[in-house]
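User: quick one
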Amino acid sequence: MTCLALWMPQLDQIFVTASHWLLSYLPAALQPLASAILSVAAIIVAFATLFALTTLLERKGLGRMQNRYGPNRVGPCGLFQPLADGVKSLTKEDIVPIRADRAVHFMAPVLLVAASFMGYAVLPIGRNMIMVDMNAGVLFFFAVGSLMELAVFMAGWSSRSKYSLLGAMRAIAQMISYEVPLVLASIVVLMQAGSLSTVSIVNMQASYSGIWPHWFVFTPWGFAGFVLFMIAATAESNRSPFDLPEGESEIIAGYYTEYSGFKFALFFLGEYIGMFATSGMAITLFLGGWSAPFSFLAWVPSYLWFFAKLLTIIAIFIWVRGTLPRLRMDQLMNLAWQFMLPMTLFNLIIAGVWHFMPGGLLRWLVCSTMVVVPCILFGGGLKRKKKFQIRTYHFSQ
Amino acid sequence: MTASFMILAVLTVAGTVSAMGLRNAVHCVLALALSFAGIAMLYLQLGAQFVGFTQILVYVGAVAILAVFAIMMTHNDKPMALPDSHAAWVAGCVVAVAVFAVLTRAIVSSTTAVQIQTQTVAPQPGVTVQQIGDALLHRFVVPLEIMGVLLTAALIGAVVIAMDRREEMK
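Assistant: Done. Structure below.
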């Protein structure tokens, strides 16, 4: 047992130590550059592997929900399916439409993937495991996230296809609408932490009273903020039920209809990497980053906690995708502007009230009421002038 | 003049030049977005994180998208014809030279430039986001509020204009 207690902190810092050890062999002038390259390589390898794993998990999970097996031919339990997919997309012909704008058509997937990977620079994956600790880290994250809109536009416009352009228009309208509640939902955390640095936000949450952690999600405003953030994050990453930009039954595949082979795979990669990044930011802001859920579990290496939380969120994403039907365009916009926006704005007031009230049961009661009541009111606003009834479908008549 | 400054400067200038020179209007906007990003990175190199990231968020994320949409709504895809008269060229050159002269004068006579010329060490600004926030909410709180009211009025105005058409159809 003492042996374990001695080794665990070292296991926690094993990647940091390894990186220092590798860098110590280089001359001092090269060290900053080599350190940056090392971190970038580690991030790309780790999250691209997670992407491969997630495609398999998603197909398996969706298969389960739809009463079928999912991939089970390649390798044990279909474990090598991502590999086969990769080989397939690499060997496929890369078709560029004859009227397409070749340069922009080529640059769009590159920009999308580059922009989606940039957000990881400010995500604290474990204790002392962050690439750059910027004092405006959260702002950086949202700034590079906005680059993805430009990439989506480039893809949709350069293909010269009506489906691509329609998909791009939908995607951009959706991403701009949901970026507002996404940023506003995270502001409550910034108010409480008093900092834009992701490292100090996580450090604030990494303490315990008794066995319970001080995660921001365990406060009324934090819980509301987390749920709103996750809804906006689902819409930002164009996932079901907000997958109108690529609604297969309407516009084929949206803005990447005219892409084939590995460029198509890059779009797929960019979308998932972006989803992981936003989930990682949600973990950092609300779920205590790399900190353990109970004080007696703090000996488990910090990066394992980060990835455990990330995989949990991915599982919820898959679950939601298998459960909810796709929204219509007007429903999507109504949800953004009539529910999400007023709710996030109101949440700012709740966070202020929480900050200035003395701690205790009364504070919990007041703030919880302040969350629940507007939630019901704004939700009722969405239902106004609509009749809900059980629909009966008649097939083959 | 460091290597990274040279790269960023070349990137920004190339973006701006091609934004003016390219024939396809959408290409122009994309080139302009490149030069916006270059300017943002120049801000970052000067240690102004807040300004740099806001530049990316507002100019690349919003203004470029807005410009692209405006062009797509109004412009047919044919390349633009060059202006025939030389008078437009001359007027453009005169305006450009005048703007350049004003900016050069302002930069040369600014306090920082004077300090560099007289070889005194310029004080390091080292502005953090916190300091900007403090300044905005203490010293400049009234201008900030007025800007907020102005922008809200503009937002409501835009919504009203967009809603008008639907009312007529009913």
